[in-house]
Amino acid sequence: MGAVLTQNTAWINVEKAIDNLKKADMLDVRKIHRADQRELAGLIRPSGYYNIKSIRLKNFTTLIMDHYGGDLDALLALELPDLRSTLLKINGIGKETADSICCYAADKLTFVVDAYTARILHRHGISDTGAYDEIQGIFHQGLPPSIEVYKDLHAHLVFVGKEFCRSKRMMCDSCPLGFWMS
Q1: Is 114 left (phi over 0), alpha (psi -120 to 50) or beta?
Q2: Rounded Cα–Cα distance for residues 64 and 145 (Å)
Q3: Residue 165 main-chain phi, psi, to 5 deg
Q4: pLDDT score, position 123
Q5: Cβ–Cβ contacts within 10 Å for residue 64, how many?
Q6: Three-state secondary structure call for residue 170
Q7: Tell me, what's the pLDDT at 127?
Q8: Which tens digit of pLDDT belongs to each residue from 97-132?
Q9: Within a 13 Å sphere around the CA of 64, how many CA atoms are in the beta-carbon half?
Q10: In this structure, which long-range contacts are made by residues 96-102, counting pairs with CB atoms below 8 Å and at least 24 apart in sequence?
């Protein structure tokens, strides 16, 4: 659920939405599937774009109900190419969200490329295009194939992106990646 809720918003807002779902005893595939879309939207309001995200959550849970008998683990047990392909067919789930689900929920070996990662690589002259597949390929080719390494590096890039490599106010002088610039 978090991968959908975090689209275009800060994690702190996602946490509030997840807390609302927990308090309403709605953090469950079957319950979200059966929920009234407006009620669901109200619960996830802190995540922003709540009407769109409630539809996306319903799309996600519909796939799980219709094709996996409501068993999220059965979906997550698919091999990486099949899982990613299945997720990308859901309206409202793109590459970043699909890869977040694959990496963090299913522990599949794929690197998640987010806006922070793309910005950092662009500013350091590593990626000119910012294309998702190009950036992901850089990490897949340059890192040891380890889910722990992928998750850890992604977390560090998110930190650097939030704290130093901001979209408007860059803090290059104090950035821990500054050695690349010299």
Answers
A1: beta
A2: 29
A3: -100, 60
A4: 85
A5: 21
A6: strand
A7: 87
A8: 999 999 999 999 999 999 999 999 988 888 888 799
A9: 22
A10: 96/132, 97/3, 97/4, 97/7, 99/136, 100/3, 100/6, 101/3, 101/76
- Secondary structure letter of residue 6 according to DSSP: T
pTM of this structure: 0.91
* Per-residue confidence (pLDDT) for residue 125, from 0 to 100: 84
pLDDT at 179: 58
Closest to 43 in 3D by CA, of 68, 24, 29, 64: 24
The stretches in the chain having pLDDT less than 50 are 181-182
**DSSP per-residue string spanning 84-114:** HHHHHTSTT--HHHHHHIIIIIT--S-----
14 touches 2 (CB < 8 A)? yes
> What tokens does 158 get?
């998110």
Query: What's the alpha-carbon Rg for the chain, to the nearest Å?
Result: 18
Nearest to 96 by CA among 6, 1, 12: 6
Question: Residue with structure tokens 């977040």?
Answer: 100
